[in-house]
Design goal:
mainly alpha; globular; single chain
Length: 140
Protein backbone atom coordinates (compact mmCIF):
# COMPACT_ATOMS: atom_id res chain seq x y z
CA UNK A 1 0.00 0.00 0.00
CA UNK A 2 1.37 3.39 -0.96
CA UNK A 3 2.14 6.03 1.66
CA UNK A 4 -0.70 8.16 0.28
CA UNK A 5 -3.24 5.31 0.47
CA UNK A 6 -2.08 4.45 3.98
CA UNK A 7 -2.59 8.07 5.09
CA UNK A 8 -6.07 8.06 3.50
CA UNK A 9 -6.94 4.82 5.29
CA UNK A 10 -5.75 6.25 8.62
CA UNK A 11 -7.92 9.33 8.04
CA UNK A 12 -10.90 7.11 7.24
CA UNK A 13 -10.26 5.18 10.46
CA UNK A 14 -10.23 8.42 12.49
CA UNK A 15 -13.58 9.37 10.95
CA UNK A 16 -14.91 5.89 11.66
CA UNK A 17 -13.87 6.08 15.33
CA UNK A 18 -15.61 9.45 15.71
CA UNK A 19 -18.73 8.13 13.99
CA UNK A 20 -18.78 4.93 16.05
CA UNK A 21 -18.44 6.80 19.35
CA UNK A 22 -21.03 9.43 18.36
CA UNK A 23 -23.54 6.89 17.03
CA UNK A 24 -23.29 4.62 20.07
CA UNK A 25 -23.59 7.60 22.43
CA UNK A 26 -26.81 8.41 20.60
CA UNK A 27 -28.06 4.81 20.48
CA UNK A 28 -27.53 4.32 24.21
CA UNK A 29 -28.90 7.75 25.19
CA UNK A 30 -32.38 6.49 26.19
CA UNK A 31 -30.76 4.65 29.12
CA UNK A 32 -28.13 7.33 29.82
CA UNK A 33 -29.06 7.72 33.50
CA UNK A 34 -29.53 4.01 34.12
CA UNK A 35 -26.99 1.44 35.32
CA UNK A 36 -27.28 -0.47 32.02
CA UNK A 37 -25.96 2.44 29.93
CA UNK A 38 -22.38 1.11 29.64
CA UNK A 39 -23.69 -2.28 28.51
CA UNK A 40 -25.97 -0.78 25.86
CA UNK A 41 -23.15 1.38 24.55
CA UNK A 42 -20.71 -1.54 24.59
CA UNK A 43 -23.20 -3.71 22.66
CA UNK A 44 -23.57 -0.98 20.04
CA UNK A 45 -19.80 -0.51 19.74
CA UNK A 46 -19.34 -4.25 19.26
CA UNK A 47 -22.05 -4.51 16.59
CA UNK A 48 -20.82 -1.51 14.59
CA UNK A 49 -17.21 -2.69 14.90
CA UNK A 50 -18.12 -6.12 13.51
CA UNK A 51 -19.71 -4.44 10.50
CA UNK A 52 -16.58 -2.36 10.00
CA UNK A 53 -14.34 -5.43 10.20
CA UNK A 54 -16.40 -7.05 7.42
CA UNK A 55 -15.85 -3.94 5.31
CA UNK A 56 -12.10 -4.00 5.91
CA UNK A 57 -11.88 -7.72 5.16
CA UNK A 58 -13.67 -7.16 1.86
CA UNK A 59 -11.59 -4.09 0.96
CA UNK A 60 -9.79 -5.64 -2.03
CA UNK A 61 -12.09 -8.60 -2.63
CA UNK A 62 -15.32 -7.01 -3.85
CA UNK A 63 -16.25 -6.92 -7.49
CA UNK A 64 -17.76 -3.90 -9.19
CA UNK A 65 -21.32 -2.94 -8.48
CA UNK A 66 -23.49 0.09 -8.85
CA UNK A 67 -24.73 2.19 -5.96
CA UNK A 68 -28.46 2.32 -5.67
CA UNK A 69 -30.34 5.59 -5.41
CA UNK A 70 -32.99 3.57 -3.59
CA UNK A 71 -30.47 2.96 -0.78
CA UNK A 72 -29.93 6.70 -0.36
CA UNK A 73 -33.69 7.25 -0.28
CA UNK A 74 -34.11 4.44 2.25
CA UNK A 75 -31.34 5.93 4.39
CA UNK A 76 -33.05 9.32 4.33
CA UNK A 77 -36.38 7.73 5.24
CA UNK A 78 -34.85 5.76 8.12
CA UNK A 79 -33.03 8.82 9.41
CA UNK A 80 -36.21 10.93 9.27
CA UNK A 81 -38.19 8.19 11.00
CA UNK A 82 -35.71 8.18 13.89
CA UNK A 83 -35.71 11.99 14.09
CA UNK A 84 -39.51 12.05 14.14
CA UNK A 85 -39.62 9.61 17.05
CA UNK A 86 -37.17 11.59 19.18
CA UNK A 87 -38.57 14.05 21.71
CA UNK A 88 -35.34 15.31 23.21
CA UNK A 89 -33.40 18.03 21.41
CA UNK A 90 -30.25 16.52 22.93
CA UNK A 91 -30.98 13.19 21.24
CA UNK A 92 -31.64 14.95 17.94
CA UNK A 93 -28.30 16.78 18.21
CA UNK A 94 -26.47 13.54 19.05
CA UNK A 95 -28.05 11.80 16.06
CA UNK A 96 -27.18 14.73 13.78
CA UNK A 97 -23.57 14.63 15.02
CA UNK A 98 -23.38 10.87 14.47
CA UNK A 99 -24.83 11.25 10.97
CA UNK A 100 -22.28 13.93 10.07
CA UNK A 101 -19.40 11.78 11.33
CA UNK A 102 -20.75 8.79 9.40
CA UNK A 103 -20.88 10.82 6.18
CA UNK A 104 -17.25 11.90 6.64
CA UNK A 105 -16.23 8.31 7.28
CA UNK A 106 -18.17 6.97 4.30
CA UNK A 107 -16.60 9.44 1.88
CA UNK A 108 -13.06 8.93 3.20
CA UNK A 109 -13.30 5.14 3.38
CA UNK A 110 -15.05 4.55 0.07
CA UNK A 111 -12.73 7.00 -1.64
CA UNK A 112 -9.96 4.47 -1.06
CA UNK A 113 -11.63 1.55 -2.79
CA UNK A 114 -11.40 0.61 -6.43
CA UNK A 115 -15.17 0.05 -6.37
CA UNK A 116 -16.35 3.27 -4.73
CA UNK A 117 -19.99 2.77 -5.76
CA UNK A 118 -20.07 -0.74 -4.32
CA UNK A 119 -18.49 0.50 -1.11
CA UNK A 120 -20.98 3.37 -0.81
CA UNK A 121 -23.82 0.91 -1.30
CA UNK A 122 -22.48 -1.59 1.26
CA UNK A 123 -21.68 0.98 3.95
CA UNK A 124 -25.01 2.77 3.41
CA UNK A 125 -26.96 -0.47 3.78
CA UNK A 126 -25.16 -1.23 7.04
CA UNK A 127 -26.03 2.21 8.38
CA UNK A 128 -29.66 1.72 7.37
CA UNK A 129 -29.64 -1.56 9.34
CA UNK A 130 -28.35 0.30 12.41
CA UNK A 131 -31.03 2.98 12.14
CA UNK A 132 -33.77 0.41 11.55
CA UNK A 133 -32.59 -1.57 14.56
CA UNK A 134 -32.78 1.60 16.62
CA UNK A 135 -36.36 2.16 15.40
CA UNK A 136 -37.28 -1.43 16.33
CA UNK A 137 -35.80 -0.95 19.79
CA UNK A 138 -37.95 2.17 20.25
CA UNK A 139 -41.06 0.20 19.39
CA UNK A 140 -40.38 -2.48 21.99
Amino acid sequence: MSVEKKAQLEEAQRFWRKFCEAYCDFAAYPVFDEPGYPFHKHDCLGRVTKQHIKNLEGYNVRGASTASGADDERLDESYQEVINQLYSQVEKLWLKNAQEEWQKFREAYCGLTADKNGCLERVTRQHIENLERYIEDLDV
